[in-house]
Write a structure and sequence with these properties.
- The structure is a single chain.
- By secondary structure, this protein is an alpha+beta fold.
- It has 3 helices and 4 strands.
- The chain has helices at about 15-25, 50-60, 75-84; strands spanning about 1-10, 30-35, 40-50, 65-75.
- Strands 2-3-1-4 form a 4-stranded antiparallel sheet.
Amino acid sequence: MWTFDVVATEQRRLFPRVLQVIENHVTHIHSFTGKVGESEIHIRFVVSMDGDKAYRIQSLLYRLTDVREVSVCCSAEIDALVSG
């Protein structure tokens, strides 16, 4: 599983645009949450896919207007950091 964290300046219709990118490349979305602050939006979602698709989605998300940061992490990487 892959966890994505997206930070963007507040922009109308950002949530549907992010979901559109995900749905075009992912077979299963485990979770999708978003929080709108005064000056920015934080979105976190967890999906199942292979690594090539994960980095492709990261690249596509960066192309969206007002997206400032996209971080992606594989759950296997998190498990390795915790156990090692």
